[in-house]
Design a protein that fits this description.
homotrimer, alpha/beta, Rossmann fold, 2 domains, 5-stranded parallel beta sheet, 4-stranded parallel beta sheet, globular
Chain lengths: ~280, ~280, ~280
């Protein structure tokens, strides 16, 4: 990493997080600092002019006017980041826009899979949990559709893929299958990767439905007895209780490595975007 | 700007924002970072010891004790910044104290006017909106009273200049006139500068009165048809809907340039205050 | 201090403040910046993944994964910092864990006493205020138990030392005495150091009891007339009204010097922990 230290000395990144985030915000911050960049922006919308009724575009124009070299933006409205990216003349990185996309998460997820297997082609990848309101699974599925991967989407019916994601995968000719969450144990033995996601309580208005679905799958040591030796368990984190902490010590658990990779992948992304020439 | 990069390397600025702000806080932050300064302080009073009942003076003394070279302070009480400036032995910059003053805004406003016309003397400057509770117009008027400028204050009666501002301008022998907001269109053709300000909802307790006044003036392309070719429209931002976005594309719109100038003017201010010798 | 500037260039500190703090957070931040360190983390738990139900351990593991060199942590649960320190392979500094401990405060307090007297042995130190819910007095008492010091604990019965602190001092063979707050004036003349602490309203559920105890002691110029010439009055700050501001100007008042020492002591601590070889 020292090879890249201060390679972007004097460049300025604006972290505009209109929704709070620890992991993504901090990994981008550390990545930028390691590259010698300066940082401005906010991690919390309540501290922003938005509270005074300013439009998103005006807020962003302000930072562009201050001479920032890149905007790293999270927003609570799907499509908001693309809207901005199409209207400013500097790079804009999507750090998550509601339940739509989280492309840098997909980058670190695919990097982590490749790091573990030395390849991506030929793998069987199961994705379980909240596939409807979560943004990481659609982004990962888009990325994996560039490879020869067999995808298995496992979720309660209420949380299965949205139609436009399914359509995109069909158009790409992706090899994917959908299963009810109850069939996890029967599918597990085939899988090389189990990608677990959190039920985002804030996405499910009904308290009862939330309680029902959150209990519908939990990854335990017991469950993993039927898995391949080489299975890796991934999670974008934060987790609540989808993966028991008893699993952390097993050879399958790769989610902390995955999180750590996020900072390095984001360093690489910033460097590839901003390096001179 | 590179000529000034890191000119203040190792100097430390305390940004003490007892009221939230995006624009002023971020432009000071970027200005300080561009000069190579380190930064401490808070952008949000809720994260400060004030919440534990500490006095303002004790909080400031703490930062002075940590060896900061300059204090940049916003506070919700008029006069609070002067109170501190008179009691510490390091420079204190007023980043806005309630409805009292916003001197660095006046600096960037006058710089922007001079940049546009190559002069300030001889211009006719209209200031419209909330002239009573807003702090930018009094500060700009104080600054312009140093020049041969014809000032026109345009506001609903409830939001016209406070008496002490009017008295100051009279004492300075400033050439100024007050008009009801209804006469905007008749005055506009004479103006070289139209300085628009936001109605600060938080300043007007009565909801009905707020709704009435906020609709009493809006800058549109239609309105600007009667303006001089060379008219510049300024706004301290954030705006809500005082200036329609349709105006952004016109040659009159200078408010984003104005905001951008803020960072450079604040760099110049910090450098002039803190440079050695 | 310049001798140490940038001595830790490129090292990264994570400031994980699960409870808000101005003084401790800012003094660690300035200390780290003066040493050339980069900083990540949060000053406010509401901006952290904890709000999404993430476990403390997972949050900390994330920062470790990003390559931080040291964790500086404040937490609202007693023992939480030790819990983490025993589970990660990098240094963890306790920046205060509820009413349990605040060891870096004890370091700067003992440094300040030594700076004032050129020694610690042989002094008589009175500690008054909230000795039960406050964390600074137990930590200072533990530190002073390494010296030949006569300790006097002065508090209303409801706020006297907790049993485990008393037991620790007895085991150490410390020379300490407990007095009701009413006897402050009679003990004062003997003291070399009067260490005053704030009644932490948030620690006393009952409003009436809070009002009663907070008025039970106040340090005034009048009170100090009976003190030794050389008495020093200390306070961890923030204060509410335990020490009248009229005392600030007296030769006894050392609490601002004490706060200022905090930044330097924390610089020394970070350097001693992280310096190479």
């Amino acid at each position: 990493m020292d090879a890249f230290r201060n390679k972007l000395d004097g460049k300025l990144a604006a972290l505009l997080f209109f929704e709070p985030s620890t992991r993504t915000h901090e990994s981008f911050r550390v990545a930028a600092l390691n590259l010698g960049m300066d940082i401005c922006g906010f991690a919390d919308p309540k501290a922003s002019s938005v509270a005074k009724g300013e439009s998103l575009m005006d807020t962003v124009k302000m930072f562009v006017g201050y001479g920032v070299d890149v905007i790293i933006m999270r927003h609570g409205k799907a499509g908001a980041v693309r809207y901005i990216a199409e209207r400013v003349n500097i790079p804009v990185i999507n750090a998550g826009d509601d339940s739509n996309e989280h492309p840098t998460q997909a980058l670190l997820d695919t990097y982590t899979i490749h790091e573990a297997f030395g390849k991506i082609d030929g793998l069987k990848v199961g994705m379980i949990g909240d596939l409807r309101y979560g943004r990481t699974v659609p982004s990962l599925a888009y990325a994996l559709s560039n490879f020869d991967v067999e995808m298995h989407f496992i979720a309660p019916p209420a949380l299965m893929l949205r139609e436009h994601v399914r359509m995109f995968l069909e158009e790409r000719g992706a090899d994917f299958h959908e299963h009810d969450v109850s069939s996890l144990s029967s599918i597990l033995p085939e899988l090389d990767v189990l990608y677990v996601t959190r039920i985002q309580k804030e996405r499910i208005p009904d308290e009862m439905e939330y309680e029902k679905v959150r209990r519908s799958y939990t990854v335990t040591r017991e469950l993993l007895k039927n898995a391949k030796e080489s299975l890796i368990v991934m999670h974008p984190l934060p987790r609540v209780d989808e993966i028991r902490s008893e699993v952390d010590g097993t050879k399958h658990a790769l989610y902390f490595r995955q999180a750590s990779n996020g900072m390095y992948v984001r360093m690489a992304l910033l460097y590839s975007i901003l390096k001179e020439g």
